[in-house]
Amino acid sequence: MHISRLSLTDYRNYAHAELELGPGATVFAGRNGHGKTNLVEAVGYLSTLGSHRVSSEHALIRAGADAAIIRALLAHAGREILVEVQLNRGAANRAQVNRNGVRTRELPRYTHSVLFAPEDLAIVRGDPGVRRRFLDDLLVQRMPRMAGVLADYDRVLRQRNSLLKSARASGLRNAQLPTLEIWDERLVELGTEVVDRRLDLVADLGEPLREAYRGIVDDDHGPRLDPRLSIDGAGEDEDPQPDRAAPDATLDSAASDTAARFRAALAALRSKELERGVTLAGPHRDDVLLELNGLPAKGYASHGESWSFALALKLASASLLRTDSTTGDPVLILDDVFAELDRGRRDRLAASISDFEQVLVTAAVIEDVPEVLAGRIVRIERGAVVGGAGEDGRTGDEREEVADA
């Protein structure tokens, strides 16, 4: 799959933008702060229903506007699909596929992309929530119906937390809260599916991760993903130690009933939950430990190793989506990535992605981009597309200057 046309209206710093794209690599070039990343962020939103930079969708709507529109024409195997989402300040978002209204959460069924940006270093070095978000974004693309499961889980979690806070404020005991058992069952039902699907995903990422990491650093540092589940006693706030045995969170869900473990955890934590007014076990408190050379990457890996690990995770994600999808390769997006890599890693990364159907790259310095990816250049200036490019990488004006010379 590739995007043949991208249109933005009142999105970020773009009043309007229209780009004709195609297969192969395209570089969005321009100075920092002029809108390069905004273009690829819009593509990523269609796949994940979120931004890799901000949590609030209001930040995506241009100042002074009531709504922003992202529209993309997708092409695959001679067929075209028009997908569109309208982000509204004061109302629910709206989505269309081929001009027919659909639920917004259905958009990931049609648009697949993998975006890597400097912010993704937080997958390795940041809080557990960043790693949960990474897994869930990939889950939704592999299994679009999981968008509904995750949304329903969040809704039930909010309701249950509200009940726990009310109980704490009024001094009610567990025996006086029969309603809590109803929310427990719904939480377990939805949470069990989230936990099991995440465990499946982590297992599937293992080999592609190792291959991608070797391809980037030309060495084998043993990258590994180790799930840590709160229903098995793993605490969200604990710092993993290299010599400590992993908790039972690594148990295969097929060998131990996740739902039963979830119920047992809620029962054991009930008094603490009533004291604190918050749900203490479930996928919203899980983590995954990232290891290199048998040590936690967070706290032990160098900056270069952490960067390579995060990039390898994204390349492994692209590999999984390529294998799973019936619509071809995902769109691979590299946002200001090459400036952070040395020459050798730049070249190895470029070689490993050159066979993807469509690669979108942003760069402030075009010389940072390996030549194999710099054939088509689109120049961005102050929220406007000021120059498209042909296969030789020069804009129309630049080609005219050459001809006049």
UniProtKB/TrEMBL annotation:
SUPFAM superfamilies, A to Z: P-loop containing nucleoside triphosphate hydrolases
Major location category of this protein: cytoplasm
GO molecular function list: ATP binding; single-stranded DNA binding
Binding site for ATP: 30-37
PROSITE patterns membership: RECF_1, RECF_2
Region (Disordered): 216-253
Pfam families cross-referenced by the UniProt entry: SMC_N
One Gene Ontology CC term in the entry: cytoplasm
Keywords associated with the record: ATP-binding, Cytoplasm, DNA damage, DNA repair, DNA replication, DNA-binding, Nucleotide-binding, SOS response
InterPro entries: DNA-binding_RecF, DNA-binding_RecF_CS, P-loop_NTPase, RecF/RecN/SMC_N, RecF_2
Domain RecF/RecN/SMC N-terminal: 3-363
Biased composition (Basic and acidic residues): 216-229
A GO biological-process term: double-strand break repair
Subcellular location(s) per record: Cytoplasm
Reported function: The RecF protein is involved in DNA metabolism; it is required for DNA replication and normal SOS inducibility. RecF binds preferentially to single-stranded, linear DNA. It also seems to bind ATP.
Family: Belongs to the RecF family.
Protein name (record): DNA replication and repair protein RecF
Chain's gene name: recF
